Amino acid sequence: MVISEERLRAPGATSADVLAQVPGVQTSRAGSSSDHATASIRGATSAQTPVYLAGIRLNDDLTGTADLSTLPLWMLARVDVFRGNAPEHADHLGIGGAIFFEPKLPDRTRVGVGSSMGSFGQWSAWTGGALAAGAASALFAVRREQADNRYGFTDDRGTRFDPTDDREVWRSNADFEAYDAWVIGRHEIGRGARTLFVANAFYREQGIPGLAVIPARAARSRTQRMLGAVSSRVPCSTWRVGEAEGSCIFEVSSTWVVTRSTVSDPWRELSMQATDVAISGTRLAQQARLGYMVSDDLRFGASALEAVEQVGVDTVASPPLRARRESTRLAGTMTWQPLPWLGLHALSVLQRQSTSGVEHAQGSRAIAVDPVGRFGIEVRPFERMQILMNIGRYVRVPTLGELHGLSYFVRGNSGLVPEQGLTADLGTRLWREGTPCASCALYVDAFLFGRSAQDLIAFKRSSFGVIRPFNVGAARVLGAELAAGADVLDAIRVELSMTALDPRDVSPSRRVKNDFLPFQSRLVVSPSVEVYADPALPQIAMDRAAVGVRLLYRSSRFADPAGLVVLRSQAVTDLDASAHFFHRSMAVRFAMRNIFDTQQFDAIGFPLPGRSVHGNLEVWW
Predict the structure, then answer these.
(1) Global confidence as pTM
(2) What is the Cα–Cα distance from 572 to 14, expressed in whole angstroms?
(3) CATH classification for the domain delimited by 2-620, as one of 3.40.50.300, 2.40.170.20, 1.20.272.10, 1.10.150.110
């Protein structure tokens, strides 16, 4: 599923907000837009869901997760959400799927500026430009954002059963200041050959407000990230394959990402063992891919990837931790269409992971070699109908953070073992145009999916507000997804996203009556209605005007395996409005988030923002 650029430009929207509207995806937030946020697909955890920015995986082997709050949407062209598995060019298949954030690419010479303002002291400004000269083009952009995130919420003092001691308080120490910069270069050599360079730098300094019951007033953190990628594609011969000329295409890419995160807790308000913790990570990866077309109906592909990741944790209270993980991945693909209405797809992967230096002051080394893959069938009984079926096998090695608890609210479990399992899905896609009227369009995307896992790694929350990973033993996840939409009279767009999930712990040794896996909502529904005019008012150079309303409902979740801690259901309604002028070179947008000011708390007890108002202005010339 593709999230369009226009949806990403909605004022006040975060990466977690836009992903929460995709069927099969569940997001978790720990506060405001600058606080930790993660996403998972089809019942997988966030550590099992790879997230990519400009083709570079942001999940590290320390925590396993990717923090969505470090992904501002302002320079993105689209978001691709793959449900089931990641595409073949990804370095991780993913258990439930994968998420790709794709930046804008330079296409013509222009300059742009923009600014945004909103509730809770939110303010941002950016400027950028693109230069196109023949086959070469380049883009640069920088952005600054800040907010105080001081919003009110109801503090029940940990006694939800007794409303008499509730009080209204203001969230403190939640301010942040962030900087983001992009440089992108592209050179079209000709005959399908091209070179692409992408670089991004991100920095954020912020307060850590702590839990609702036990706030932190002096804890601060800093996050720094630099990433880059260089890729080249060259056709192997003169046959024509899609947009490029060549019966085979060879592509090589190099990627790197450097991160550093520091947490300062001088008053020990976060229950850390030390007052200062610094976590650093470096990943270098080299990948080569070859695609070969035997005929119009048969294609083969092969790829090889070598990645090296180094992580370090420095604290005052304990010796420094240094770890190194080397990954090798060999993959082969086949696409065969034996009949006009039948397609077969296969992917086989052999991956090897070597981890060394895991323990403090020890040189321990662990090696894991695992074959994984998937097989899919595509049937087209009619011109505008697809029936899809996929089955696959996966293996996931525990991350260093899951083993040793290297986060201020995530504790470790050194007894974890790798999890493995099978995944399968079956679904259909339908789309119609011109029915029942010439300017109408309709689509339906419905899937059933399931996953069986052994030694599943899940998380549970303790009474102190921290979470800890554990091996469930055996688990199975069943679910259904629905994405449907209709465009009527080129003026009204109606969409519906729905996910029903049944995640169960089926371990024979389970000691509690509750068998629902924690942190999974069993029902997520997101309907929306948009009314638009395109073109709107040519007399005043208005190209398009739109106003829309979207609801997001999530059912309750358990926060512990026994089912004693329940996270309440929540329903949030948002309003968006936008107008484009002068051939879409200027855009004005307005949004009201959480219109009915619904009180929300997320997984660990953090209060989420209430009603807020945002607006932005964007100009290109």
Answers:
(1) 0.89
(2) 14
(3) 2.40.170.20
